[in-house]
Amino acid sequence: MKNLFKFGFLGLALTIAFASCGGAETKSEQATDSLATEVEHSTDSVADSLNNVADSVKTTGDSIADSLKNVQ
Fold first, then answer.
1. Angle at 43 between CA 37 and CA 48, to 5 degrees
2. Any alpha helices (H) in the chain, and if so which ranges?
3. What gap in Å lies between CA 4 and CA 17, rounded to an integer?
């Protein structure tokens, strides 16, 4: 009977240990996915900003070119 209780508590301890390790791994994976998503959003935002600046510079350049054509 003593051995039955010992094995029961051993099984309970192992179950709790595996459950706690599995939960930590899931949190780590979620953190990794969250970080990857945040990096992707930041990269997209920077790319959009650079495209806006490039479009603005092109528009300004075209406007200057048109002004120079009118002067000549």
1. 125
2. 2-71
3. 20
Token pair belonging to 25: 């791994």
Residue 3 neighbours by CB distance under 10 Å: 7
pTM higher than 0.70: no
Distances (CA, A) of 71 to 1, 15, 34, 53, 64: 105, 84, 56, 27, 11
Three-class secondary structure of residue 72 per DSSP: coil
Residue with tokens 């075209």: 62
Please list the rounded mean pLDDT of every run of 10 residues in the chain (72 residues): 72 76 63 82 88 91 86 68
